[in-house]
Amino acid sequence: MSFAWPAFLLALLIVPLVLAFAVWADRRRARYAVAFTNLDVLASVAGERRFAWRRWLPLALLLLALAAASTALARPRAQTWVPDDNATVVLLVDTSGSMRARDVEPTRLDAAAAAMRSFLDRLPPRFHVGLVEFSSVPEVLAEPTRDRQLVRDAISYLSPDAGTAIGDGLDISTKLVQATLAREGVRPDAAGKLPAAIVLLSDGTQNRGRLLPQEAAKRARAAGVRVYTVALGTPHGVVRFGFGPFGQTIPVPPDPPTMRAIARITEGKSFTAKSAERLEAVYRQLGSSIGRRRETRDIESWFLGAAALLLVAAVGTGRLLAAPLP
């Protein structure tokens, strides 16, 4: 939190001054109380002392009200996350043959599909969302749209195919983001960033394609697009082809270092998921955070509102407890 007019924080000095005056007045009244010789009066004074907090509660509320009002004079400001109305998100998912692996139940691809549906539930409805799959070559399954059902239908068509062309998939997703925002007339901000993100999920190492993942990441960074990456699977994941003695088992470990490198280059974030539960948690988190930007807002109204409520509480408590300020 920061302040537009920090010098006005000196007004907070009124709080200890009021407290000091209240303590002085209370002690002064206590000195006069000892002059009474009537036992009944002394007994009533002693009873009052046992519930002294009743007299001090309204004062405490009043002091808090003064502190809040004094802070409001300095015009406090705070940075908050606000949704970006023009945000575009592209879900980029690996559909290589290794997504058949069952180390993430029921299969890696089934877990990814469920997680992406959870992501759609969390994402604000005004955001545009697209879907791109890649195996040996990338393919756009859904142009960025606000129609969530269209994207859900596209997710249901995902199926494991052949190789893994991470770089090509990332490159076509970046171009898709740029084209979508250009049609909306959206330009990069002062820092060169677009209100867009790519969520890349892959479970293996690139073995197809013409563009290396790091090179595609540099192109995304130049376009102002952040990439959030998820490395799916366990180091011991395998896929099996064929039957009986003609079957073949192929290890398909994920490639977290490449995923981290892509996220680092584009100033995104990287995650690993070794279970369906972890994967869904990652996508829920991303759905609640992507497409938001930090904005500095004046919050003096919050302090003024708090001061008003505390003042009403101080007066109300004083009347309820029959406890005037000391």
Q: Would you give an account of this structure?
A:
With 326 residues, the chain is an alpha/beta fold. Helices cover 47% and strands 20% of the residues. It has ten helices and eleven strands. The chain has helices spanning 14-33, 39-50, 52-73, 108-122, 148-155, 166-183, 213-223, 256-266, 276-289, 300-320, and strands at residues 2-3, 76-83, 88-94, 128-134, 138-145, 196-202, 226-232, 238-241, 248-251, 270-273, 292-298. Strands 5-4-3-6-7-10 form a six-stranded mixed sheet, sandwiched between helices. It has a three-stranded antiparallel sheet with strand order 1-2-11. A hairpin with a 3-residue loop joins strand 4 (128-134) and strand 5 (138-145). The longest helix has 22 residues, at 52-73. The radius of gyration is 31 Å and the shape is elongated. The two termini are 34 Å apart. The mean pLDDT is 85.
Describe the protein's topology.
Blueprint: E1 2-3, H1 14-33, H2 39-50, H3 52-73, E2 76-83, E3 88-94, H4 108-122, E4 128-134, E5 138-145, H5 148-155, H6 166-183, E6 196-202, H7 213-223, E7 226-232, E8 238-241, E9 248-251, H8 256-266, E10 270-273, H9 276-289, E11 292-298, H10 300-320
Parallel strand pairs: 3-4, 3-6, 6-7, 7-10
Antiparallel strand pairs: 1-2, 2-11, 4-5, 8-9
Helix pairs in contact: 1-3, 3-10, 4-9, 6-7, 7-8
Class by SSE composition: alpha/beta
Report strand %. Answer: 15-25%
Largest sheet: 6 strands, mixed
Query: What string gives the helices and strands in order?
Result: EHHHEEHEEHHEHEEEHEHEH
